[in-house]
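Lecture 7, part B: from sequences to assemblies.

Below are the input chains for today's worked example.
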Amino acid sequence: MAYFITEDCVICGTCWEICPTKSVVEYDWYYKITDTCVECGACARVCPNTAITRDKEKKAKEGKNAGA
Ligand code: SF4
Ligand code: SF4
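Predicted structure of the full complex, as structure tokens:
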């Protein structure tokens, strides 16, 4: 499963700069990761706000309509 950028993103651009496959793109009010991601994990390691995860549950928890 590919990585996701969550709402914790502070739009610093570090992941965009470091991605070796240019898989981080500007999107709406933050960034998103595209299908060309090779899951190297580099972006997740450098993110200052731990906004990049491959954990879908964490992403859902941070979403506006999480849980039930
Ligand atoms: S490194 Fe983290 S905070 Fe910075 S733009 Fe990427 S996801 Fe957002
Ligand atoms: S995991 Fe690697 S390839 Fe995928 S978006 Fe992050 S830096 Fe790019």
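Note for the exam: The first helix runs from residue 14 to 18. Keep this in mind when comparing with the next example.
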